[in-house]
Specification:
With 98 residues, this protein is mainly α. The chain has one domain. 38% of the residues lie in helices and 7% in strands. It contains four helices and two strands; from the N terminus they run H-H-H-H-E-E. A two-stranded antiparallel sheet has the order 1-2. The radius of gyration is 13 Å and the shape is globular. The model has no long low-confidence stretch (mean pLDDT 82).
Length: 98
């Protein structure tokens, strides 16, 4: 039941992001943390990365269905982030960029 609810909430956030309107209460990471090419990306792409870095625990249990398992991705989070380093820096994956 918890996974179903989490999936439903994520779907609502994604749909809101696709509409171009950030919903009140949706937690987004800072654009300063994003690489320059993602900072310059269309709002939908940028906000998806911002959501991923601010909400990794929501994305981690959700499998990705785009076929990226062949490149080692295990969850939806892997499409955005390769690693959260202990110093607070983030190594991004460009899979979701395109």
């Amino acid at each position: 039941m918890k996974r179903w609810f989490t999936g439903l909430m994520l779907l609502a956030v994604i749909l809101a992001a696709c509409s171009g309107a950030t919903q009140p209460g949706v937690k987004l990471g800072s654009t300063i943390q994003l690489p320059p090419e993602i900072q310059k990306a269309p709002a939908k792409v940028r906000e998806a990365y911002q959501f991923a870095i601010a909400n990794p625990d929501l994305l981690r249990p959700i499998p990705c269905y785009c076929g990226c398992g062949s490149v080692g991705h295990k969850s939806n989070l892997d499409c955005y982030v390769k690693e959260f380093k202990s110093d607070g820096s983030i190594v991004f994956d460009d899979h979701a960029f395109g």
